[in-house]
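Quick log. Single chain, no ligands specified.
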Amino acid sequence: MRPKTICGVFVFLMVSSLLWTGELRAQQPPAPPPSASATRSSAVVPAGQENLLSVDNYRSHQFNPYFAPQVPDISMSNSERLHALTHDGKLELSLEDAIALALENNLDIALARYPLIFAKTDILRTASGAGFRGINPSTLGIVSAFSGGSSGGSASGAGGGASLTGSSGVGSVGSTSCCDPFMGASFRWDHNTAPVNFTNITGGASAVTNQLSAGSLFYAQGFLTGTSFAVGLGGTRVATSAFTSSTLFNPQVPTGIEMGFSQNLLNGFGYRANAKYIRIAKNDLKLADSTFKQQVIATVANVANLYSDLVSFKEQVRVAEQTLAAANKLLADNKRQVEIGTLAPITVVQSESEVANDEQALIVAQTQYQQQQELLKTAISKYVDAELTAATVEPTDKLPEPRPDDIPPLDVALRQAEVNRPELVQSDINIRNQEITVQASRNGLLPYLNVWGTYAPIGLSGNQLVNGQVVPNGLWQSLGQSLRGVYPDYEFGFNLSLPLRNRQAQADMTTALIQQRQMRIQLQQQRNNIAQDVRNQVIAVTQAKAQVAAAVKATRFERETVDAEQKKFQLGESTVYLVIQTQRDLSTAEGNEVKARSTYAKALTSFAQSTATILDKYNIELADAKTGHYHAVPNIPGASEQPASSMLAPTKP
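-> predicted structure:
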């Protein structure tokens, strides 16, 4: 191939690379306009704006990489669903409503969304060739000012200058780190006048005047294969008043082009060695997704338990009210009998004492109910505003009734946990990341062998004195010589470096392998702990079911005892003390039944959490949790899917 053909190919590649960014974006369809909801401030990246931090977003224009990206602001306003469910000073809440509000407003879930965005920024960062920061980067000092570009840029740009005339060779243009290309330009102008102590070249003048103009352009890029190339174009114009008859050009205009490549053949060769950070960053996006799922599961389980406790405390208030009503009725009956002389006055005192105790128990039950409301309000809102503070939470669901098929068999539950638990997914991803580290460390054991090649044609021209006439020439003539390869310079070579003991690489490789073995043991340990957790939850559900059955029987027996004791008292065969005692026993039995039902409900929730099936249990799509907009799927056959806000909004009478 002719030198000027080679030169033309390299120039074409350089120009094409510079224009590639804009052309690639121009071929893509225009982005759809943002929706109305996406234009509002949100605590998460709204749907339709999730590509904000993608790599393609930074290719929309050549100057976009130099401006801060648009990141949506946060909003601390509660969702519209919360306001829709609040009316007449009451927040009528079903368990599905509570879970939907938590998915939209809970701050733990809102915080858990950010590792997903951090993972995307890591993919963007590692695509440039830099290292990753992880899905939970430290808050302080994670961003530092970057000084200069990658090594090799300025060297490849020093194409022009005196070194281009009579140089013994330009050597290797150096290697460039992956993966973002970079380009640059330089310009210099100098005019100086200096006195001289001789006259043989100055025509009798006492000073020499020199003027210099120099400029260069360069472009370089590295690739994941361990390859890098650089192209540089430079030139200089030098004019001087100190010339002799032997001076060929004045001013002289030397130009030059440098084109070179570098390729690692052992250490630093190939995708596995150079794409470690990119591969880990892509896995970390899956890791962030699994971590987010784990947080959603924990939040949903917490809200379900809070709701069960709220229903339980409401039932405790009902039991306390019924007990107080029975005590008041007994007090009124005793007063009438004392008035007619059938009972001693001391029985009224005993009844009044019991009423006072029951009033105290009712106050305790009511305050516990109020405290539980506050806990639930905090869990389902971004902040408790005045409207929510004044509202009374009224649960509309009841505690579940025990069923024979409430949980699957143990072997099925274990398989569900093995498939669904986010912790196992995270451990598996960490092991895969460690395998990537092992592969890169294995490549780091190899010696350094690098081959390089350079093609650097030069040109020289300028004004020339011929037979007393000045023949004007300059930049274009000199640059034409460089482009045609009139004065070519071809070089190639290799660099070999052999670390004789290689102790650092050996230690790094050993550490990577040990950590891999450690992670595998931790994975098995986690499997054992999860299996044990599932077995414990199965036992807890069985125990809670038995407690509910026993509590129901005890309540029935105590109610029958109270009825029998009151009949005996009316017939004069019992005392006030015995009646009061049986009423206390009934109140205790009813309270125990409520606690047993609440324990059973929370045992079911803990079981669903241990098998990671709680999202399926409540028909929760992880995508809804990511966007913060919950959509419920109706259970009516043939019904179309509607937003949960329209399905669950209360209807006013």
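The two ends are 89 Å apart (CA to CA).
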